[in-house]
Amino acid sequence: MDTPLVLKILYSLISLAVITIWGLSLGGIVRKIYARVQGRIGPPFWQPFIDIIKTYGKRTAVTHGIMFFLGPVFRIAGGIGTYLFIPAILGSTIFSNFSVSGDVLLVMYFIFFGQLGMALGAGESGHPYSAIGVARGLAQMTAFEVPFALSIIAIVIQYHTLNITTIVLAQQGSILNWTLFTNPLATIAALIALLGMNMHNPFSVVLAPQEIPIGPPTEFHGSYLALMQTNRGIFNAAKLVLYMNLFFGGATNIFALIIKTFSIYMISVVVGVSFPRFRTDQSIKFFLFVPTLIALLAIIILVL
Fold it and tell me: DSSP string covering 33-71, please?
């Protein structure tokens, strides 16, 4: 029996709240790890929650036009849309979201939507360095989306479907059924692309904290900054859930979701604390060469 729409929306809101808490907790844990590696104590892992409560309670008198304020709105809309069309827990009434109404292509569009909206908002800020940040962000996004899209094509060919739930079902029964083992080349290419999506070192070319001490965290204030901070938790967790479903067998309970998403995120963290930042041109060349060739090889093997 189909779940009534009102109840489905309620379940999705509960699911969204849980994944937001988990995403923000992950961010706090990672900040603590980075601090320890650098010989610092670091903030407590609950610091992201304190920051959001504080910024939601503030107002801003700064204005740069309508699009400037719509940037964070588009950003969080992209994060929420990405998550709501992914089944977070297979077979769960609450955590299935609206996965039956979408597929992997729709989710990819939502990933683009938030980033492009943020670029439009930053472009209207009037800051002379905004163009640099927008150009870096869109260039790197285009570069890492190439291997990511090719890896998606590879698993679509493998499973003969675009439906994420069907892909997860095909990986059940044994750990050896995971895409990680049945299509390791596509998995490797997608994980390299994930490093660019998460923007940890060596791919933190957009914010470039050691180089450009400005950007959305300093130009946006109050509730607009709070929206961006909230989206940081939602979008990070949504990407991890998507990768878990496509390449690591999905999750059948909340504990499997937490363990798998944490493990996937730690890949970016370990790489981030081990390597210095690339220049923008180095980042683009890397994504268009190594992971792209790996993803193309995965497609060729499946076709042949």
Answer: HHHHHTT-----TTHHHHHHHHHHT--------HHHHHH
